[in-house]
Amino acid sequence: MGALTGIRVLDLSRVLAGPWCSQILADLGADVIKIERVGAGDDTRAWGPPYMKSPSGEETSEASYYQSSNRNKRSVAVDISCAEGQEIVRALAAESDVFIENFKAGSLKKYGLDYEALSEVNPRLVYCSITGFGQTGPRAREPGYDFIVQGTGGLMSITGERDDLPGGGPQKVGVAVADVMTGLYSVIAIQAALLAREKIGKGQYCDMALLDVQVAALGNQSQNYLSTGVSPGRYGNAHANIVPYNVFRAVDQDFIIACGNDHQFIALCNAIGLPEFPLDPRFSKNEDRVRNRADVTRILSDHFKQDKAKVWVDKIYSVGVPVGLINDIAGALAEPQVEARGMVVNIPHCMNPDFKMVGSPIKLSATPVEYTRPAPLLGEDTDVVLSEFIGISSEQLSILKSKRVIG
User: Fold this and answer.
1) Which residues have a Cβ under 8 Å from the Cβ of 64 and sit 6 or more positions away?
2) pLDDT digits (tens, 9 = 90+) for 268-307
3) String of b and e for 149-188 (b: at least 16 CB within 10 Å)?
4) How far apart are CA 39 and CA 341, in angstroms?
5) Average pLDDT over every residue of 225-252
6) Given 3.40.50.1970, 2.40.50.1000, 3.30.1540.10, 3.40.50.720, which CATH number is that of 245-249+254-325?
7) Candidates 179, 212, 314, 381; catalytic one
8) 179 in catalytic set
9) Which long-range contacts (CB under 8 A, 24 or more apart) does 216-219 make?
């Protein structure tokens, strides 16, 4: 019994932001029906290599990208460009609680699958549109891509090394964070709308935009600008408002120190053998260290070249200052804490019974996340869903398949 058991989601989204949203809803127990193109499916089905491997180590046809954001869903292949396909989606929407789509603004109106049309069929429907720039404004009709939004939304201007350092310049984040964050915010919006439905008796429209989310997620950096009128620059791995908060190089490898306050700075300096450092008035308070960032960084960098990273990490960890080595993804997934938290899960797949993926971070005591199925094969559930929910007979299913309306 999941937290969202009993909620049916009709998901017409593709790629990442929308599927990320619907996967979270599915993890929480919602019945997510993923509508995909006949013969092709979600764009990310073709985004490989890498592909999932079979037990013998051979590549299957299932792209890892698609697998990452579509577990716990059912796949129904429908051609929404034809009248019969549109009628199938409308019939499913009439039996659903949530409708998710990420087509360009206004694109679904010509198919009769826009909010106005579907809310007449089902007034309690929560309809969530996810686009690059939203439903209004001068860029509303443009397609939106995470990379473009990271640039337009200011994130790349504060990500990467300074221009005066080797490799300096704007840099995108290594994960499509605008997509992922928009998926998360969309989950919040949908759940809020479902709660509101119990109060007002009807569904509503959720207009979610990658650019809105990216701007909102600038956090303290945008507020720094609003307070000063000066756009923050790039600090590489350093922090705009806290020093020392950076990557440092030891004899053998890099490690991270995240020193959050003056007490931690004193503890840090005592642990590494620099007890006099906090007594210098240039460095005693965080605001002083921010102003004298270059000197603090130089002194610590020179000091850490005297020993191995593990030695420094152990000393600093022992006094309660946040510190850590830098893992690659293999190392991160092998971390004992990650293993203890159950963050790598086995979800048997018909092509690989030992298939593994990263699990949900949501831990609920009474209604825990369950992993009922891996990402579906294209059209795997078409017959079951259409017969169960809208009563299409086996004979009608055969006719619709012969006409390529469904797959």
Assistant:
1) 48, 49, 50, 51, 52
2) 999 999 999 999 999 999 999 999 999 999 999 999 999 9
3) bbbbbbbbbbbbbeeeeeeeeebbeeebbbbbbbbbbbbe
4) 38
5) 93
6) 3.30.1540.10
7) 179
8) yes
9) 216/185, 217/155, 217/177, 217/181, 218/153, 218/154, 218/155, 218/158
